[in-house]
Amino acid sequence: MTGICDEFELWDLRIEVVGDQDGMVCNHKVGDYFELSGENLNFPDGQPFSIYALAALLPLLPAKQRMTDMNDWMTTDAEVACPDPYCTARFRIIRTGKTTFRHHETTGLPPGEAGNE
Ligand SMILES: [Zn+2]
Questions:
Q1: Number of structural domains, the chain?
Q2: CB 30: neighbour CB atoms within 10 A?
Q3: If you measure from the C-alpha of residue 53 to the centroid of ligand 1, how many angstroms do you get, rounded to a whole number?
């Protein structure tokens, strides 16, 4: 499948710990972060990240990677609370840039097949 323009773009994301450090009861530190490009999470060397916070974030990240309507709340809302109700940490999802992917390199289906019609 060469010569066919089957490109699409996804936002690259940086997810960063923000909020009041004194109120954080988990092991978060303001400024800790990880990045997502395509399907790959990247963490800075040696920096831990809570599995509970990661579990809260994961369902939102694929939606935030995609181009969204300017009126969609997914476009404007970018902070997720720590799932521990006693923790003040917030995780800010920042769209940092776009990466171009090719359909045929990411799936076995032909372009344009929604699979649900
Ligand atoms: Zn927390």
A1: 1
A2: 13
A3: 7
